[in-house]
Every structure is written in C-alpha cells, then in structure tokens.
Write a structure and sequence with these properties.
Order of helices and strands: EHEEEEHEEEEEEEEEEEEEEEEEEE
Shape: globular
Radius of gyration: 16 Å
Structural class: mainly beta
Strand content: 25-35%
Length: 194
C-alpha cells in the first residue's frame, strides 16, 4: 500500500492499515523536508505507485489528486469501526477508529469518516466528504460532494446538505443547506457563501 500525503492524517491511516495487517511501503509528498514518516520512506515524485490512499485532509486536494493520478485506489477501514454488511464504502475512502456506518449507508470515493463519527441508516455521503470526529448524520440524510462536517456537528434525519459546504463544529443542522455555504450554530444558520 502507498499513501499520498505525509502528515498527521497519514499517521492515522498507517495505524489503521497496520491493525489490518497491511504494510505501507512508502508515502509520496511534495514537501522536500519530509523524508521519513513513522519509519516509512517518503518519496517526492509520484511514479504510478498502486494501490494508493490519498492521506490528505483537504477535500479539494483529494479531488484534484484523484482526477490527476493514474493509479488504483484502496480503502482503509479500522477494525474498531462498526460497518453494516449492507453499507458501501467507495474507493479511496477511510473509516477511522470507532466510526459507525449503519444499514444501507452509501459512502462515496475519497471520503474521511473520522474518529467516532456516526452515520445512520440509508444516508448518502458524496465523494470527497469529510465527517470530522464525533460528527453525527442521522437517518436518510444526504451530504453533498466535497462538504466538510465539523467536529461534533449533528445533521438530523432526512436533511440534505449541499455540495462543497462547511458545517461548523458543534452545529445542529435541522433544515436543508444549499451548495457552497458556511453554516454554524444551533440551529445551524448560513453566515456566508464560500
């Protein structure tokens, strides 16, 4: 396995892969000052390494690299995560320690389902989404492509959050949120367009 990105997010993915008995051969990163991460060599040029996980927190950068790199992407699911047999997780996505994906959840490509995040039945999580630690997405909700749900935020059932939006930490989303906005608070209110 290879990782693209050599920072904190990569360290967590390395732990998950180790717990699954998968060795990381090397990482790729354009930061020339980083040559080793957790005992693994860091290369500075991508040369077709496969399989790969994009170990970068930025949703936009993961999308850009997904479109640019010619490689096969793998997933990483922590053995401490609870994933329903009927849930699906797209290529390149990572499900962190203690996360829960309930029945018929659909997680897109290159998503981060972070530590302790909970996604209830029949939710649809678009590509490049990041659910921060302890975010909760209640049943039959939809999170649009590229959206970031902040730490401890809650999206109630049947709500749709648009594409490339940001929901602030601790926010409670009780009604649909459009594309490209920042929403914060309880209840969540749009405070600006992105």
């Amino acid at each position: 396995m290879f990782l693209y990105g050599a920072s904190g997010h990569a360290k967590v993915i390395i732990d998950i892969l180790r717990q699954n008995g998968i060795d990381v051969e090397a990482l790729i990163d354009d930061n020339l000052e980083v040559n080793v991460l957790q005992g693994k060599p860091v290369r500075h040029v991508f040369s077709g390494e496969t399989p790969m996980i994009l170990s970068i927190g930025s949703n936009r950068v993961r999308k850009m690299l997904d479109e640019k790199l010619d490689t096969t992407f793998a997933t990483a699911i922590s053995p401490t995560a609870i994933v329903s047999p009927s849930a699906t997780v797209g290529d390149g996505s990572v499900v962190m320690q203690g996360a829960i994906l309930q029945t018929e959840v659909k997680v897109g490509r290159h998503c981060i389902i972070n530590t302790g995040a909970c996604v209830d039945h029949e939710c649809r999580i678009g590509d490049y989404v990041h659910l921060s630690p302890h975010a909760t997405v209640c049943g039959d909700a939809e999170i649009g492509e590229g959206t970031w749900i902040g730490a401890g935020a809650t999206v109630i059932q049947c709500v749709k959050v648009g594409k490339w939006s940001v929901i602030g930490a601790g926010a409670v989303v009780i009604e649909d949120i459009p594309d490209g906005v920042l929403a914060v608070g309880n209840p969540a209110r749009i405070i600006r367009h992105l």
